[in-house]
From TrEMBL:
<dbReference type="InterPro" id="IPR016039">
    <property type="entry name" value="Thiolase-like"/>
</dbReference>
<dbReference type="Pfam" id="PF22691">
    <property type="entry name" value="Thiolase_C_1"/>
</dbReference>
<dbReference type="InterPro" id="IPR002155">
    <property type="entry name" value="Thiolase"/>
</dbReference>
<feature type="domain" description="Thiolase C-terminal">
    <location>
        <begin position="268"/>
        <end position="392"/>
    </location>
</feature>
<dbReference type="InterPro" id="IPR055140">
    <property type="entry name" value="Thiolase_C_2"/>
</dbReference>
<protein>
    <submittedName>
        <fullName>Thiolase family protein</fullName>
    </submittedName>
</protein>
<dbReference type="GO" id="GO:0003988">
    <property type="term" value="F:acetyl-CoA C-acyltransferase activity"/>
</dbReference>
Length: 400
C-alpha cells in the first residue's frame, strides 16, 4: 500500500467547550476554551502551535454558523503561525483537516490547531438563523433554484433527497426511528449531551413532521459550542500523553456535479457519498470489517443511513434491515455508531463533535458509553464522515 501523507499525521490532542442551547459566554470565549484544552491535552504549549485551520472560516453573519475567524482566534491566543487556512469550498467540514494534512506533509507546520465553533442556539433567539435565505432579502447563487419552491431551510432541501431514498429503498419510518433512538440512548450516558432522555418508536412517530419524511427527531440540535483538535506530524505526536492516533486514510473526492441541485442518477439518493468512501478504502489495507466504532454524520438521520450503505456496512438500499430493532448499531452491537449521542442528541458540532468522540473511544475514556470490542482493550479503528453532496468527506482514525 502506498504511504499516503495522511498516515504521517496524528491527532495529538482534543478539546471541547461546554455545549449548550444558550451559552453563558461569547463565541470567542467558547473557542478559546476548546483550543486551550486541546493544546494542554496534547502536552503542548501555545508557542508549539505553528498552524491553524478551520471550516468555513469566520463568515461574519449573524446566524451563528461560523462566528470566529482564524485571525480573531490567532490574535486572542497570540499564536505565531507558519501556515493557516480556512475556506468553505472544500470537501465538507473535514476540508480543514485535509488541508492541514497537506501543510504538515509539505513541512509548513508541525502542530496545527483545527477548530469548529457554532453559536446558532443564541443566534436563533434574535434571527432566522436556520434559513438558507432571509425573508424579504434577495436570493443569490444556488438558492435561486430553491426559492420558487419555498425551500428556505436545510430540512426542506434535504427532505427532497430523503424522499428519493425512501422511494428507492422502501425504508419505513419505524426503521428510520432507530437512528434517533440509538443516539438518545447513547446520549443518556454522556453527561455533556444536550438531550439525554431516552425516546421510543412511539415518541418518534408522535414527533412533528418538519418536512416529509423528516420528523423533529430526525434533525440535529443547533447549539453553542466549540470543538478543537491538534493535528501533528506523527513523529511529533508519538511521545505525547495520548496514545498515538493517526489518520489512516481520507476520502475527499468530488467526482460528481458539485451542486446540491444538479446531482444525477442515484447521486440524489446516495448523497454523492459512494466515490468518497471508495477513495478512502483505496488508500488503506483496512476494510469495513476492521471498524470498531463509527461516528457518522447525523445532521439528519438520513445522512447516517446513507453512510451505512456507502461505507459498505450493508448492501445498497439495505440499511433498513441492518438497523431494524437498533441492536446492530448499539454500543454493544456489531457496528456501534454515534456513541456520544451524535448531533441529534449531543449537539450539532458539525462533524467535529464526532472527531472528539472518536478520540474519546479510541483512548478508552468513554466511561459508561465506552465501546468494548472482543479481543481488544479499546477500539482500534474509527471512521468519521460528513454529510453528503458537495460536503461529503470521510476518514479513518487508528491507534496502536
Amino acid at each position: 500500500m502506498t504511504s499516503y501523507p495522511e498516515k504521517q499525521t496524528a491527532i495529538s490532542g482534543i478539546g471541547q467547550s461546554k455545549i449548550s442551547r444558550g451559552a453563558d459566554k461569547p463565541a470567542l470565549g467558547l473557542t478559546i476554551d476548546a483550543a486551550l484544552q486541546a493544546i494542554e491535552n496534547a502536552g503542548l504549549k501555545r508557542e508549539d502551535i505553528d498552524g491553524m485551520a478551520c471550516w468555513p472560516g469566520g463568515t461574519g453573519e449573524a446566524n451563528g454558523f461560523a462566528p470566529i475567524s482564524i485571525p480573531v482566534l490567532q490574535d486572542a491566543l497570540r499564536l505565531k503561525l507558519n501556515w493557516y487556512s480556512n475556506a468553505s469550498e472544500t470537501s465538507g467540514q473535514y476540508g480543514a483537516l485535509f488541508n492541514a494534512i497537506g501543510a504538515i506533509a509539505a513541512g509548513l507546520a508541525r502542530h496545527v490547531l483545527i477548530y469548529r465553533t457554532m453559536y446558532e442556539a443564541t443566534a436563533r433567539k434574535t434571527s432566522f438563523a436556520n434559513a438558507l435565505s432571509q425573508p424579504g432579502e434577495p436570493v443569490y447563487g444556488i438558492f435561486n433554484w430553491y426559492a420558487p419552491y419555498h425551500v428556505y431551510a436545510a430540512s426542506l432541501q434535504q427532505a427532497l433527497f430523503f424522499n428519493a431514498y425512501v422511494h428507492k429503498s422502501g425504508i419505513k419510518p419505524e426503521q428510520v426511528a432507530q437512528i434517533a433512538i440509538n443516539g438518545r440512548r447513547n446520549a443518556a450516558l454522556n453527561p455533556a449531551a444536550i438531550y439525554r432522555t431516552p425516546i421510543t418508536v412511539d415518541d418518534y412517530m408522535a414527533s412533528p413532521i418538519i418536512a416529509t419524511p423528516l420528523r423533529l427527531f430526525d434533525c440535529d440540535v443547533p447549539c453553542d459550542g466549540s470543538t478543537a483538535i491538534i493535528l501533528s506530524h506523527r513523529d511529533a505526536a508519538k511521545d505525547g500523553p495520548n496514545p498515538l492516533t493517526w489518520i489512516e486514510a481520507v476520502g475527499s473526492s468530488m467526482r460528481y456535479r458539485n451542486s446540491w441541485t444538479q446531482m444525477e442518477g442515484d447521486a440524489l439518493a446516495t448523497q454523492c457519498q459512494p466515490e468518497v468512501a471508495a477513495m478512502m478504502w483505496n488508500r488503506t489495507d483496512l476494510t469495513v470489517k476492521d471498524i470498531d466504532v463509527a461516528e457518522l454524520y447525523d445532521g439528519f438521520s438520513y445522512h447516517t443511513i446513507n453512510w451505512l450503505e456507502n461505507l459498505g456496512v450493508c448492501d445498497r438500499w439495505g440499511a433498513k434491515d441492518f438497523i431494524e430493532g437498533g441492536h446492530r448499531i448499539a454500543l454493544d452491537g456489531e457496528f456501534p455508531i454515534n456513541t456520544n449521542g451524535g448531533a441529534m442528541s449531543a449537539g450539532r458540532m458539525h462533524a467535529y463533535g464526532q472527531v472528539h468522540e472518536a478520540c474519546i473511544q479510541l483512548w478508552g475514556l468513554g466511561g459508561e458509553r465506552q465501546v468494548k470490542r472482543k479481543g481488544k482493550d479499546t477500539p482500534k479503528v474509527a471512521v468519521m464522515t460528513t454529510a453528503g453532496g458537495p460536503l461529503a468527506g470521510s476518514f479513518l482514525l487508528c491507534r496502536d
